[in-house]
Amino acid sequence: MIGGGGAIQAMITAIKNNSRQSNRKKFDGLGGTAEGIYKKSTHQKIHTVEEIEAAKAAFREKQRKRRHLTYWSVGLTIALSLAIVYGLMKLYILLFN
Description:
Layout: H1 5-25, H2 49-96
C-alpha cells in the first residue's frame, strides 16, 4: 500500500487533538483552584428502613423476572436447536439414502 502513511498519520493526529480538547473541557471554570467538579457536595440523603426494604423488594422482583426470562430463552434456544438438528438429519437421510 503506497501513500497511505500520510492519511493514517493525519487520522492519528486528529484523534490526539480531539482527546486533548475534551480533557481541557473538564477544567473549565475552575479558576486555577480546586473548586468546581472537585468540591461537589458529598451530602447523601439518609433513607428510612421502609424505603430500603421497598427498594430491596423491587430489586428482588426485577431480578426474579429477569431470571425467569433467561430460563425461558435458554429453554427455547435448546428446543429450537434440537428441532433444527433433527430436521437436518431427516433431510440428510432423505437425500442420501
